[in-house]
Write a structure and sequence with these properties.
This protein has about 230 residues and is mainly beta. It has one domain: SOS response associated peptidase-like (hypothetical protein yedk fold, Alpha-Beta Complex). The chain contains four helices and 13 strands. The longest helix is centred in the C-terminal third of the chain and has 8 residues. The protein is globular, with a radius of gyration of 17 Å. The two termini are about 15 Å apart.
């Protein structure tokens, strides 16, 4: 799975990755957690690209309980196109989730050791995502809540010793086809959701500081070779 992200890339670098897109000023984030906003790229109603902040944890439009979103921060790419929670979004509400790192936890005995994973070139990347819009039917004047989830795939050889799943990375030459909401054929985009090349990533252990959602500082991504003493989960 993928349960934490970082985004500390300057606006200038994001603009270079998405030529012509406008990004709002934002502070660097070292521990983006579920239910918090994450930066997404999607097609607008007029089919133009737009950068938006969406709440992490997808809330299907048919549900009555928004708490379901905390359990839908990830969607398995192999089955998302057929699952009721993700099926409609997979057809026409696909997005890119922008980040420059993520955390994963490796089980060691009774404890879990967090690792920080990023690209070797330290550049930002885009993960395959889905988004939805939800509103309480009993309160028609209420503002829609827009949420998203990250698609995951099987781990590559690099990630496998840490976890058996990893987020699905997309390459720049795939962005347009993935975001094209006029293409509702799931089978045409499914092949994009394969594991990233194993030699593209780097990882190192970090302190249990990242386990707490209120910690959001540079220390969250600092290398730590101290063993985890207890299971904080």
């Amino acid at each position: 799975m993928c349960g934490r992200l970082t985004l500390r890339t300057p606006i200038s670098a994001l603009t270079a990755l998405f030529s012509g897109l406008q990004f709002s000023q934002r502070k660097f984030r070292f521990n983006i957690c579920p239910t918090q906003p994450i930066l997404c790229i999607r097609q607008s109603e007029s089919f133009q690209l737009e950068a938006v902040d969406l709440r992490w944890g997808l809330i299907p439009p048919w549900t009555k309980d928004t708490k379901i979103g905390t359990g839908l921060i990830n969607a398995r790419s192999e089955t998302a196109a057929s699952k009721p929670s993700f099926r409609d979004a997979f057809q026409c509400r696909r997005c890119l989730i922008v980040a420059d790192g993520f955390f994963e936890w490796k089980k060691i005995g009774t404890s879990k050791q967090p690792f920080y994973i990023s690209k070797k070139d330290q550049q930002p990347f885009c993960l395959a995502g889905l988004w939805e819009s939800w509103r309480d039917d009993t309160r028609p004047t209420q503002t829609h809540i827009q949420t998203c989830t990250i698609l995951t795939t099987s781990a590559n050889d690099f990630m496998a010793p840490i976890h058996d799943r990893m987020p699905a990375f997309l390459q720049p030459d795939q962005f347009e086809r993935w975001l094209d909401k006029s293409n509702r054929r799931a089978e045409s985009v499914q092949p994009m959701l394969s594991p990233l090349r194993a030699d593209s990533l780097q990882a190192y252990p970090v302190a249990a500081l990242v386990n707490r959602s209120n910690n959001d500082s540079l220390e969250c991504i600092a290398r730590s070779d101290d063993p985890i003493q207890q299971n904080l989960f």
